[in-house]
């Protein structure tokens, strides 16, 4: 009996231990749906739904085909159907397979060098030990050390800790063998969106057509096929943010926009735009989708001359002379003006047709998030045919804290139509207009605003005297 027990004990030591269960590997082939929410701050929220079959007990789930710029601390997993499971560990593996990494992993190990003998022209295989890979491989072949070997390097296999693409790895505890629908959600950098607008002015600059486009730039390291797409417009606070990647510029030509495809809704303190169809956002792709279209939108054109506050503190000297007159257009974001949708921030590019009917680019500007019933204001540039010339005619000190200044501004209009130039003068301190050639209003506590009509091929002069206390 003792001999039998001893034999059984020896056999038990000789038998191999049960092998660890092979990990469950899930790829994009298991995907049943994906939802993507993109913020205009180089951030995306991914919700990846897959059907996966689990075993019982503890097991490893390797969740592949995730974004390379995933934020690991944002990852969560949930069961949508089937039994519950317990998450014991969560890891993000991104030690990706590359020639450099592969050679680093084989330092101190045997590899093979495959080369053609130049004398016999036969293929030869040499076994070598890779000693180092700092600045180039160093080998031991037999009893000799060499580097710069011309042979093609052959590895016996891929180390287990090197993976072909970024992978989420969970250690799960499951009570039953069954197929479950799970959803993994995570935040990723490298994906952003912005709005680009194309405005085409009418011949008289009093009407315009507007086409708004969503420009999505995906550098997150993943492709999102047939995704349910949502866009969030607003300034979302983040504790740590990566520097935004510059998105590619929209093509300069004007594109005919189809009917709106996004449904807009208020969401917390932001606005949410939901695409009414699935869309595929490929890796390293810049995609544009129509956001809004409008025709016959009323436009207000403005010529603006703005002064500087330092003109009023002493004789301005060389600061006087010819000055540029800016050109602006304004659009009210109202339903009665064929708009009314909250407009996300972006770039507005403005075009106009020349005498031959060809569309020409006339300027661009950025706009901030613009709610309904607010005004969109775009600077196009400086007027070529409108010239301003400023002269300080007097400046004197009346008392220890009181001063007077007088100015003369000549406005010359070389255009073929009458215009009005808005002149904004930033007067400092507590001020009083003593005299002026044109009526003025207070734009705010520190600015006087004049609207000066200037006839075609003519000139107008604005002269005023102001007393200041500061």
Please characterize this protein's 3D structure.
The protein is mainly β. Among the domains are: 20-95 and 163-188; 99-154, no CATH class; 301-349 and 370-469, no CATH class. The protein has helices at 2-14, 99-105; strands at 24-26, 31-39, 43-54, 57-64, 76-81, 85-93, 110-116, 123-132, 138-141, 144-147, 152-154, 167-174, 178-189, 191-201, 207-218, 224-233, 262-267, 270-275, 279-281, 285-298, 300-306, 321-323, 326-332, 346-353, 359-367, 375-382, 386-399, 402-413, 419-425, 430-436, 440-444, 447-454, 458-469. Strands 2, 3, 5, 13, 16, 17, 18 and 19 form an eight-stranded mixed sheet that branches. A hairpin with a 2-residue loop joins strand 31 and strand 32 (447-454). The chain is elongated. The protein starts with a helix and ends with a strand.
């Amino acid at each position: 009996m003792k001999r039998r027990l001893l034999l059984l004990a020896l056999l038990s030591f000789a038998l191999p231990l049960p092998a660890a269960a092979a990990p469950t590997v899930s790829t994009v082939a298991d995907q049943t749906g994906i939802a993507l929410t993109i913020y205009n701050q180089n951030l995306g929220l991914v919700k990846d739904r897959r059907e996966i079959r689990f075993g019982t007990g503890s097991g490893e789930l390797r969740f592949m085909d995730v974004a390379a710029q995933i934020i690991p601390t944002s990852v969560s997993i949930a069961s949508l159907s089937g039994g519950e499971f317990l998450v014991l560990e969560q890891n993000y593996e991104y030690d990706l397979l590359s020639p450099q990494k592969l050679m680093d992993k084989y330092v101190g190990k045997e590899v093979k060098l495959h080369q053609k003998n130049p004398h016999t022209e036969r293929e030869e295989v040499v076994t070598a030990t890779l000693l180092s890979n700092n600045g180039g491989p160093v080998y031991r072949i037999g009893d000799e050390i060499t580097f710069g070997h011309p042979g093609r390097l052959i590895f016996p296999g891929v180390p287990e800790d090197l993976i072909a693409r970024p992978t989420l790895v969970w250690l799960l505890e499951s009570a039953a063998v069954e197929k479950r629908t799970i959803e993994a959600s995570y935040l990723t950098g490298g994906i952003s969106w912005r709005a680009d607008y194309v405005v085409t002015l009418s011949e008289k600059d009093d009407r315009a057509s507007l086409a708004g486009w969503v420009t999505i730039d995906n550098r997150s390291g993943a492709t999102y096929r047939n995704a349910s797409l949502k866009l969030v417009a607003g300034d979302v606070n983040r504790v740590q943010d990566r520097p935004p990647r510059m998105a590619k510029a929209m093509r300069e030509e004007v594109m005919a926009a189809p009917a709106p495809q996004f449904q807009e809704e208020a969401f917390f303190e932001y606005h949410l735009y939901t695409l009414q169809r699935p869309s595929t956002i490929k890796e390293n792709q810049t995609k544009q989708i129509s956001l809004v279209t409008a025709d016959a939108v009323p436009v207000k054109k403005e010529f603006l001359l703005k002064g500087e506050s330092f003109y009023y503190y002493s004789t301005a000297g060389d600061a006087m002379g010819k000055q540029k007159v800016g050109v602006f257009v304004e659009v009210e974001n109202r339903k009665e003006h064929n708009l009314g949708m909250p407009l996300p921030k972006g770039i507005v590019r403005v075009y106009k047709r020349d005498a031959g009917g060809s569309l020409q680019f006339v300027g661009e500007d950025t706009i901030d998030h613009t709610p309904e019933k607010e005004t969109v204001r775009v600077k196009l540039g400086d007027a070529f045919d409108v010239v301003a010339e400023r002269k300080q005619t007097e400046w004197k000190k009346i008392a220890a804290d009181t001063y007077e200044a007088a100015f003369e501004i000549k406005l010359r209009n070389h255009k073929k139509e009458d215009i009005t130039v808005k002149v904004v003068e930033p007067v400092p301190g507590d001020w009083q207009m003593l005299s002026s050639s044109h009526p003025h209003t207070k734009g705010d506590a520190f600015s006087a605003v004049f609207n000066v009509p200037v006839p075609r091929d003519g000139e107008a002069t604005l002269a005023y005297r102001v007393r200041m206390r500061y």
